[in-house]
Amino acid sequence: MRTTTVGVIRIATTGPGDVSGLMAMIGSGAIDPAAILAILGKTEGNGGVNDFTREYAVAALCTALAPKLGLTPHEVEQRIAFVMSGGTEGVLSPHITVFTRQEVAQRPAGISGKRMSIGMAHTRDFLPEELGRTAQIAETAKAVSAAMADAGIADVADVHFVQIKCPLLTSDRVEAAAGRGKKTATTSAYTSMAYSRGASALGVAVALGEIGSDIRDEDVLRRYDLFSKVASTSSGIELMHNVVIVLGNSAASASEFEIGHAVMDDAIDAPAVMAALKSVGFGADPQPGRELVNIFAKAEASPNGAVRGFRHTMLEDTDISSTRHARAAVGGLIAGLAGTGAVYVSGGAEHQGPAGGGPVAVIARLKH
Amino acid sequence: MRTTTVGVIRIATTGPGDVSGLMAMIGSGAIDPAAILAILGKTEGNGGVNDFTREYAVAALCTALAPKLGLTPHEVEQRIAFVMSGGTEGVLSPHITVFTRQEVAQRPAGISGKRMSIGMAHTRDFLPEELGRTAQIAETAKAVSAAMADAGIADVADVHFVQIKCPLLTSDRVEAAAGRGKKTATTSAYTSMAYSRGASALGVAVALGEIGSDIRDEDVLRRYDLFSKVASTSSGIELMHNVVIVLGNSAASASEFEIGHAVMDDAIDAPAVMAALKSVGFGADPQPGRELVNIFAKAEASPNGAVRGFRHTMLEDTDISSTRHARAAVGGLIAGLAGTGAVYVSGGAEHQGPAGGGPVAVIARLKH
Amino acid sequence: MRTTTVGVIRIATTGPGDVSGLMAMIGSGAIDPAAILAILGKTEGNGGVNDFTREYAVAALCTALAPKLGLTPHEVEQRIAFVMSGGTEGVLSPHITVFTRQEVAQRPAGISGKRMSIGMAHTRDFLPEELGRTAQIAETAKAVSAAMADAGIADVADVHFVQIKCPLLTSDRVEAAAGRGKKTATTSAYTSMAYSRGASALGVAVALGEIGSDIRDEDVLRRYDLFSKVASTSSGIELMHNVVIVLGNSAASASEFEIGHAVMDDAIDAPAVMAALKSVGFGADPQPGRELVNIFAKAEASPNGAVRGFRHTMLEDTDISSTRHARAAVGGLIAGLAGTGAVYVSGGAEHQGPAGGGPVAVIARLKH
Amino acid sequence: MRTTTVGVIRIATTGPGDVSGLMAMIGSGAIDPAAILAILGKTEGNGGVNDFTREYAVAALCTALAPKLGLTPHEVEQRIAFVMSGGTEGVLSPHITVFTRQEVAQRPAGISGKRMSIGMAHTRDFLPEELGRTAQIAETAKAVSAAMADAGIADVADVHFVQIKCPLLTSDRVEAAAGRGKKTATTSAYTSMAYSRGASALGVAVALGEIGSDIRDEDVLRRYDLFSKVASTSSGIELMHNVVIVLGNSAASASEFEIGHAVMDDAIDAPAVMAALKSVGFGADPQPGRELVNIFAKAEASPNGAVRGFRHTMLEDTDISSTRHARAAVGGLIAGLAGTGAVYVSGGAEHQGPAGGGPVAVIARLKH
Q: What is the predicted ipTM?
């Protein structure tokens, strides 16, 4: 088995088109552009269908990285997994997290135990009518397994976060399907984002054995008892396939980083956030020599309209979408417990954690 | 000195016009309508200039209480202090908190120490051009002192929360002033809410000796080093004077309740929220026989555009006002630490706590 | 056949709770409260699920009219049809239109031809799972026929506007249905507004013979070739049945008013607006002695994402709902051609006019 | 005097990053990239401070044009004037209008009269504290005169539209000024957009002799009786100087195009729109052989809160900014009269036309 080392660097941005931080680190040698596997970002759009900050950020990064990699911008976009989650409501702060991976000859002597590892895979392109349905679930499950192998992770218990980027429906795509006599899961672009996220998350759950593989089309966005504890899915207008990134710990990794996770049962589950922090050495009695790199979490308005018995108004607000409400609230809680707003809290947690809750993963850097 | 007892009851609402919970408690005898001094509520509007859920809630309450009190609805509105804070973003849950006060012959034997007390006062009506300026500050300071006396509180250290309801400017009011040759502090209705909240808070700070009384017009919304640690001010379209409600602890109170507070230094100051909880017996090692009644806090987007060095986007969002962002985020944090979204988090914390932060008060009920 | 006279008075409001204009006209004798049949209003909320300005306006009107009618507010709400359409985007101006009806002994000598008449009917309460489906369509059709009879209109060609107020689904209602093992047409409150409006409009089309009666559940919000040219439907949270108001011209009416209509083929159909104006004597060569009372129109974002081949962005905007966009745009056009923003333009025109278009009716007052 | 020919091509876009239409026309030879002087666009963002669709569109265009011009993207941005106006509310349709200019040896024989001409100039970079004040006014006036000369226009009566792109304040810029001991006109980014637009428009009015040059800082956004009838100004985060583009008719132009204009007195001034159309041969009795190329207009919520005596709610809406309301409404009117939503209606008309109104210019293409 090959040994890899993984880097995780969080870089603040001054706007969706800002690549200066990353370029400076490449310039100084702190980041080797050829080692970049994935970039996850929080951009400051509305996180909805018409959030163009995501594609703008990707375009800016591809254009900037192209000469460094000797590729065209389009080739950069094929090579690196870009996952931009729109929406920095409340105290959330725009930033990107750059994941690098390099092979190393062998593990340094000082490293023991499992360390953070990363793997990646893609599905094929989907037809519009496949989004939010079993085809998307099954293809995603296959890609998750492939990404685990790519990460050198054999045990599902070592998988702590599976980030997926998935497509959505636009008017054009719905009409294209209709033109072929096919009905999409929904005709609403906005609703399609939920379907795509939900089916992708169920694909993770299937791959990790969290649920059985006998899911039906009608379970998506309905049977919320079916979920993954580590899936995080984001839909964007810019692609028609799923990109799967598996984050976990592996004995084959020689990285300085460790990842852990917990599951928030609802949007105010502070103990879960603290448990996730504790799982990588933070908490009431923090281990020395560790620094917080980033937190990755999903947030949603609980579909039953209440949190611990108290009514919330997120789902019935015509002015602000519920995903924006949820990111703001959960972002506020996590930022408070983490001490920073530069965390990755993404909206739309259908089948990602229990209804109204969501996964929360923490990456720590070990100083030695 | 007279001895009073104070009641604090939190009641969930199903909408801004919902009075059924209060009416049921009056019907059962749990609340004596004649004892109601003030009602603070969170209503589910946008919290901005055109948030009519506040006045709707007040109208519904006045209409419902009128026959119980043998008054007209208008007389009810004069008698009881209604403070409706619009905006239940994120996990915040619409509710009202009913404060009652009754004189009792003497303190029951079992009660020792200071207990929660409440006092109230009004300023005169302001002219539009007085809002956000020294006239509003000075009149508010006088009213705070009057309300302290009404609460039986002599020591400013016993004041833990001063809730003020204050006016805002509308196009009509700006024009009325202009017609008299007077220039208002701003011509924007939205901005005027900040001016009025800020000047009112400075009035509290003056009254409690937190700052000197030599404030100038130009300090309002500029010198954010001047603030009160216990002021909470909300502006609404429905009045032209300030209503001041002082909450604190007093040896003259025989109530079952206790109040404490802390100051959040910024919007992610989780330790301050925990300190406020601890001040009335909650926290890591909670005292038995106590239940949380409600938390009252103010939230705002830090005016310098950052929280602990990380940029936030609240002030530059044209789609969602920064007050909505801030309530959602701080509401998420407080709800997480309190275990409930039915807390009173109000937006617009100008001169209420340090810039970007705000006061947080907690009321506990002692079971015996 | 009885002879009736109908009054139509437009009154500007200063807010959703403002009843002063109506009360002044009752005080002066200009309006007999006992003759009020219906009040249609534009209130300044968001027009969505959480638009409380509608119920606030109704509550304020009922409370104010109660003593004038010797009824309780609740009885007033049962007696008069209140249809509040939320959303005064752009130049639209908040106002109410009061419709009165009185029997008269006989037609005055000076009146010839058909004059404006009004009729009203209700359906039974619907179950949540009936909304947006054939049950709502069939019951509505029956009520339209009943309202025509009430208006003294026999010929469907004399019907120029059918205003319907219909229910929507809330989380509670969806759960209530689910508790009985029933699935509602949608679980989204917002989407349910469209279903309810659409089914109600189809009911009008059936009653007026514009389409056949063999509609199926699955045609609602899909077969947009099925529509009524005179239906205008608004959904609100405050009721569970449909209220139907038929406006047309009748030989049995002795009123000073005349009504006409046209159908906008799309949201920029200026010629249709001008045709509607011309149908009651306005236009390039206006008839003397007539004044415009009000215009009633429906607006929607064309579901195919384009207007005359040019893409619009209303359906993919996560920040502003498409109904708000559409009201603003169509309101701007109609206000421009009418010379006033105090017109009734209501959003959500599903099955009301062709896809992307909507009915537009004009009421004129004849001075003699 | 040199003779120039001018091209004006409107191209629909599928998103802010879509350059395919322009590239196709360059590919087919329909547009010579070297001749492009300016590109005005409507992009589908919110038009506010955080509207990144503008800079994204510019970045995409610069990147695409760079290889065609043998320049770097940055050099393209310096060479071509890009004015992206954010906000396609209602029926407005995203598009760009490409303006080209080329010198020709002499006027073709068939062309008589004045034809459309275009000129351009820049101001120096402004300091943050100069925005919205006399420095910006005076520098803009100088640039307008320079752009007129560049267009070969000597008579101010031949100037029909002056498009200006101007800066805004961000938190950073406000702080930078404060750091130098300077106070900016406002600390609000959003309000700064209005100041910058207003001062720029006053600069046009000064240059064209519409008002005197004795403007004071305090007149900006206050003395709305001072305005230009042809100024159109848009603020954006991406620059610190003003870019001035003068559009008019000139005897030195050999172009196929003609431009005319009118001034809307308020947001519902349909006759003004019709007058502008008529000025270039459209209207009730249209001249043959002409086609409409585009309409350029400015829209705003009237600052006094009413349109022809009826209250509007645009200025007091906390959920939707007034610029979005105004664009939607005026866009609806102009689209209705023009028969297309692909028109350039831009928000924020401070000192551009009378208060609440704005300029409207029409470009026609003469077929021969």
A: 0.94
CB D165 within 8 A of CB D242: yes
List the structure tokens of A97.
Answer: 């997290």
- pLDDT tens-digit readout, C17-60: 999 999 999 999 999 999 999 999 999 999 988 999 999 999 99
- Residue range A263-311, pLDDT digits in tens: 999 999 999 999 999 999 997 777 888 999 999 999 999 998 999 999 9
The third-level CATH classification (topology) of the domain covering B116-246 is: 60s Ribosomal Protein L30; Chain: A; (3.30.1330)
Q: Could you tell me if C52 and B15 are in contact, meaning their C-beta atoms sit under 8 angstroms apart?
A: yes
Q: Does A17 touch chain B (CB under 8 A)?
A: no
Query: CATH 3.30.1330.170 in chain A, residues?
Result: 3-104
Of B88, B310, B335, the CB nearest to A340: B310
> Rounded to whole angstroms, how far apart are CA atoms C160 and C115?
12
Nearest partner of D31 among D117, D105, D107, D98, judged by Cα: D98
Task: Specify the long-range contacts of residues B57-63, CB closer than 8 Å, at least 24 apart.
Answer: B57/B13, B57/B16, B57/B17, B57/B82, B57/B84, B57/B96, B58/B82, B58/B84, B58/B238, B59/C17, B59/C56, B59/C59, B59/C60, B60/B16, B60/B17, B60/B18, B60/B19, B60/C59, B61/B19, B61/B22, B61/B96, B63/C63, B63/C73
Binding-site residue ranges of A for Mg(2+): 300, 349, 352-354, 357
Evaluated on CA atoms B165, B170, B176, B181, the torsion sign reads positive
Which element (helix H / strand E) includes D95? strand D95-104
Question: Is the CB of D52 less than 8 angstroms away from the CB of A52?
Answer: yes
The closest of D241, D275, D227, D41 to D140, measured between CA atoms, is D241
Q: Flag whether residue A45 sits within 8 Å of chain D, measured between CB atoms.
A: yes
Active site residue B165: yes
Nearest residue to B121 (alpha-carbon basis) of B246, B205, B259:
B246
- Hey, what are C65's tokens? 């009219």
Distances (CA, A) of B331 to A85, A325, A329, B235: 22, 11, 7, 19
Report how far Cα C248 is from the mean position of its chain's Cα atoms. Answer: 13
- C257-273 pLDDT tens trace: 999 999 999 999 999 99
Rounded Cα–Cα distance for residues C22 and C11 (Å): 7
Minimum Cα–Cα distance from C312: chain D residue: D93
- Report DSSP letters for A256-315, one per residue: SEEEEEEEESSTT-HHHHHHHHHHTT-SSSPPTTEEEEEEEEEE---TTSEETTEE--GG
Domain C3-104 has CATH 3.40.50.720: no
Residue extent(s) of CATH 3.30.1330.180 domains in chain B? 116-246
A330-334, B338-342, C297-301, C364-368: least confidently modelled range: C364-368
Question: DSSP readout, D55-91?
Answer: HHHHHHHHHHHHHHHTS-HHHHHHHSEEEEEE---TT
Residue of B nearest to D303 (CA): B171
Instruction: Give me the CATH topology for the region D256-366.
Output: 60s Ribosomal Protein L30; Chain: A; (3.30.1330)
Question: Encoding tokens for residue B3?
Answer: 């001895």
Q: Looking at this protein, which amino acid is placed at residue D262?
A: A
Residue B110, both tokens: 């079992």
Tokens for C360? Answer: 């537009």
Q: What is each CA distance from A306 to B93, B95, B262, in whole angstroms?
A: 8, 13, 28
Closest CA to A246 of A262, A264, A230, A257: A230
For D100-138, give one letter per residue: b (16+ CB within 10 A) or e: bbeeeeebeeebeebbbbbbbbbbeebbbbbbbbbbbbb
Class of residue C218 by CB neighbours under 10 A (exposed 0-12, middle 13-18, buried 19+): exposed
Give how far D301 is from chain B: nearest CA, Å. Answer: 13
